[in-house]
Specification:
The structure is a single chain. By secondary structure, this protein is mostly helical. The protein has helices at residues 8-22, 33-36, 46-53, 97-116, 133-146, 151-167, 172-188, 193-210, 216-228, 232-245, 250-263, 266-279, 284-296, 300-313, 318-330, 334-340, 347-358, 366-369, 385-391, 396-408, 462-479, 489-496, 500-511, 515-531, 541-547, 553-564, 568-575; strands spanning 57-66, 69-78, 84-93. A 3-stranded antiparallel beta sheet has the order 1-2-3. β2 (69-78) and β3 (84-93) form a beta hairpin. The two termini are 45 Å apart. This is Tetratricopeptide repeat protein. TPR repeats lie at residues 284-317. Keywords: DNA-binding, Repeat, TPR repeat, Transcription, Transcription regulation. It comes from Olleya marilimosa. Residues 470-574 form the HTH araC/xylS-type domain.
Length: 576
């Protein structure tokens, strides 16, 4: 919700850091940046956001930065009723930004736990990546540019990453970011390939000496092994290392789905894509990946429906445009095909491919096809229309030769050649099955484990629970700590000599409720007692609620109605 345009890069960077921190908490489903940021600065009903993201709780907030000061406000909102059940404002020195990010992330995790039930939270969720705050701000500027994913923005991002490194030559994340940028420029052909790869490797060599615990370390090998060398076994091993560090890592999940597609293991690919969409449901790229699986399974109607949704999320996703074109070709939908390809590139090629697939008697002369036999188109085409045309014409031998050449060069455009419907005419050619032999045995691919609700770790045995339960009940009866509206789980944990994880576990196991409901039950009983006392008849219901420890009108009314089935006013009238 920040309106500070000049510091948008900073606000976005802090938000992403908090998202990434919360993903480290097991049993928390945290929506990734792409889907979360879809609602940035938009006035959309909380319930609609919750529905689109399939979540119960929204974290909303703003950031303001001025010189060396920063103010962060945050609130947690229940999407079912719009209740703000936690809010806080933080005013700090900018130099302590990493401690603040960690404090906010932990506070959010604690509040979700307090309201929804026990899960364990680590002592710290954010590791300080640099001691230099200026280097951090330069990194965030680079990150904001990199995420625009244009050749110009990526080149500009590198300049900021280099400036960050100049201020802190041990800034591992800046080196890894440079590595990714140079790798993309090499793959896209926007820098001389060897020059870009040499720069990428030099950044990797430095970064790995500083920190190999980051998921960026194994991820840096995935592009090399998977897309550059088609070494599927090593790609698989390194993708697994990424997911061991962060099971919800978007790039790791996507890479595993893509690897399974290349191997033709569509059931496993669907499992990883499903997980991708759970943590990043509004990513056009993720829906494109799902549509590609349906396409390779020859479920063209299903693929078309999915790709149409991807294009509503990002109308500029060029690969999605091509995939929609292919679906319409195989569905022989002449009317929609002709309408769709207008004002797009490669119209001649698309029409020719449509006619070759759907008008089987069409003949292509040597003169007509000559421009598809030059062998220089695959460097500029995102998808190889030229080879598709050759393979479905009376020039299949030439198409096979060109496909063989592209595979020998390890061109990413044809990495899924075994699954591609347009290559079906070549599958009986002598040597087709030997074009590329995967070094990864299909049986080695482990399907994604079905996520089941885990039983909480046994932090306290039954005897400890029984003993601590009595101690807790005695404390609440004698000291009435619930009357303090600022009472926290940590405060109660300190009184009983426990850490917050054990305190949360105790309340959950002993009373089968979350911490806030446990405390609010005492507050509600206290409210009932003083509300029926004639000497308090001059006080308002809200005043009595505050005297009982509630610090929010909405929380009081919601909890009261949930527990009693009627409003506080109706209850008081019925019991007076």
């Amino acid at each position: 919700m920040s309106s500070d345009i000049d510091n948008e890069y900073f606000c976005d960077g802090i938000t992403e850091e908090i998202i990434n921190a919360l993903t480290k908490v097991d049993q928390l489903k945290v929506i990734a940046r792409t889907s979360s940021f879809a609602f940035k600065g938009k006035d959309i009903d909380i319930r609609e956001i919750g529905k689109q993201l399939s979540v119960n709780t929204i974290l909303e907030g703003s950031i303001k930065k001025s010189n060396d000061k920063v103010r962060i406000t945050a609130q947690l909102i229940d999407v079912s009723d719009g209740i703000h059940y936690w809010s806080k404002k933080y005013d700090r020195e900018l130099i302590n930004i990493f401690d603040l990010e960690d404090e906010i992330s932990l506070a959010i995790a604690d509040e979700v736990r307090n309201n929804f039930g026990h899960f364990e939270v680590q002592d710290h969720l954010i590791k300080q990546p640099t001691n230099n705050i200026d280097a951090y701000q330069l990194f965030l500027k680079g990150r904001s540019l990199q995420l625009k994913w244009t050749p110009e923005s990526i080149k500009e991002a590198i300049t900021f990453y280099n400036q960050a490194i100049a201020l802190d030559n041990n800034y591992a994340k800046a080196y890894y970011a440079n590595l990714q940028c140079y790798g993309l420029l090499a793959m896209w052909g926007y820098m001389p390939y060897q020059e870009a790869m040499d720069l990428a490797i030099s950044n990797l060599l430095i970064a790995k000496e500083i920190d190999t615990s980051l998921p960026e370390y194994p991820l840096s090998f995935v592009g090399k092994f998977f897309w550059e060398e088609w070494d599927f076994k090593n790609a698989y091993l390194h993708i697994n290392k990424v997911l061991e560090i962060n099971p919800n890592h978007i790039d790791g999940l996507e890479a595993m789905a893509e690897l399974c597609i290349a191997l033709g293991i569509f059931d496993v690919a669907l499992q990883y894509t499903d997980k991708l969409l759970k943590v990043d449901p509004l990513s056009a790229n993720n829906h494109y990946t799902l549509a590609h699986i349906y396409y390779y399974q020859r479920q063209y109607d299903k693929a078309l429906k999915t790709i149409d949704y991807a294009l509503t999320l990002n109308p500029q996703l060029e690969l999605a445009h091509h995939l929609k074109c292919f679906c319409l070709i195989w569905l022989n939908d002449t009317e929609q095909f002709n309408s769709f390809i207008q004002k797009t590139s490669l119209i001649e090629e698309k029409n020719l491919l449509f006619n070759l697939i759907n008008k089987k008697d069409i003949e292509i002369t040597n003169d007509d096809i000559s421009k598809w036999s030059k062998g220089d188109n695959e460097l500029t085409m995102l998808v190889p229309y030229d080879i598709f045309i050759l393979c479905n014409s009376n020039h299949k031998e030439l198409g096979f030769s060109r496909l063989k050449e592209m595979i020998s060069l390890r061109r990413g455009q044809v990495i899924n050649f075994r699954q591609e419907p347009f290559f079906k005419p070549l599958q009986n050619f002598n040597g087709f099955s030997e074009l590329h032999q995967s070094n990864l045995v299909l049986q080695d691919i482990i399907p994604l484990q079905i996520e089941q609700e885990e039983s909480p770790s046994i932090l306290l045995d039954k005897q400890q629970i029984d003993s601590l339960k009595e101690e807790l009940l005695c404390y609440f009866k004698e000291d009435e700590p619930y009357l303090n509206p600022q009472l926290t789980l940590k405060f109660v944990a300190d009184v009983l000599g426990l850490n917050t994880n054990k305190m949360s576990y105790l309340v959950n196991q002993a009373f089968d409720v979350n911490f806030n409901d446990f405390v609010n039950s005492y507050r509600l009983n206290h409210f009932k007692t003083i509300a029926l006392d004639p000497k308090n008849s001059h006080l308002t219901i809200l005043g009595l609620a505050y005297d009982s420890g509630f610090n929010s009108k909405s929380v009081f009314n919601t909890y009261f109605k949930k527990t009693e089935g009627v409003t506080p006013k109706a209850w008081l009238k019925a019991n007076s």
